Amino acid sequence: MVAVLTEREPALRPSDLEARAAEALVACVARQGLRKTTLDDVAREAGTSRATLYRYFASKQAVVDTAVRLEADRVTVALLRAAAATTTLEDAVVAVLRAAHRELAGHPALTYVFACEPERVLPSLSFRGLDGFLARASDALAPAFAPYVGADLAARGAEWVTRIGLTLLCSPHPPVSLGDEAAVRAYTAAFIVPALTGASSDPPSRR
Predict the structure, then answer these.
(1) Which candidate, 109, 206, 98, places its Cα nearest to that of 149?
(2) Which residue has the higher pLDDT, 124 or 180?
(3) Which residues lie below 8 Å from residue 186, measured CB to CB, with a gap of 6+?
(4) Mean pLDDT of the chain, nearest integer
(5) % pLDDT > 70, the chain
(6) The CATH classification of domain 2-57, taken from the options 1.10.10.60, 3.40.50.970, 3.30.1030.10, 3.40.50.300
(7) Which helix (DSSP H) or strand (DSSP E) does residue 105 occupy?
(8) Model's pTM, two decimal places?
């Protein structure tokens, strides 16, 4: 029966299968966590067969890695788009932090994992894992700040904003809530913009 269903299943492009599998994994993790989610669960959620998934993914971890990559790409696009609509460094920082809050704070899969399976994500946000995360985030978000601090300092600025954002997102008692735009703007003006502009004596403006 599985063979028959597999033969009749329409062929999918790898990129389409990646997207469907990633979306299905996120939905499954939001309901039951990563530990309990199986490839069978992902296949059912994606509307495809387990055999089809195995032809492209060697393991459940491969699906997880793909989902993390695609979600990271999606969030990065959202943050860069938010920054692109700004005209000052302060506005860009506020836009990036607020967009990160919108994309991550209410993310159902991340919420479940942080609450019930923190060991799945914390290694990526601490010690050597944090170094790698910050390096990737710095490269990805540098274009958001390059118009204001210059290309040479953009990655460093992106790293600083990422560090601040992680602290505010992950702290149980953050000094400001990223959901409060006025508070984020005041915090940015007091602590983030001076650190970024202080590294350059003549930061360029966007316009």
Answers:
(1) 206
(2) 180
(3) 176
(4) 88
(5) 88
(6) 1.10.10.60
(7) none
(8) 0.83
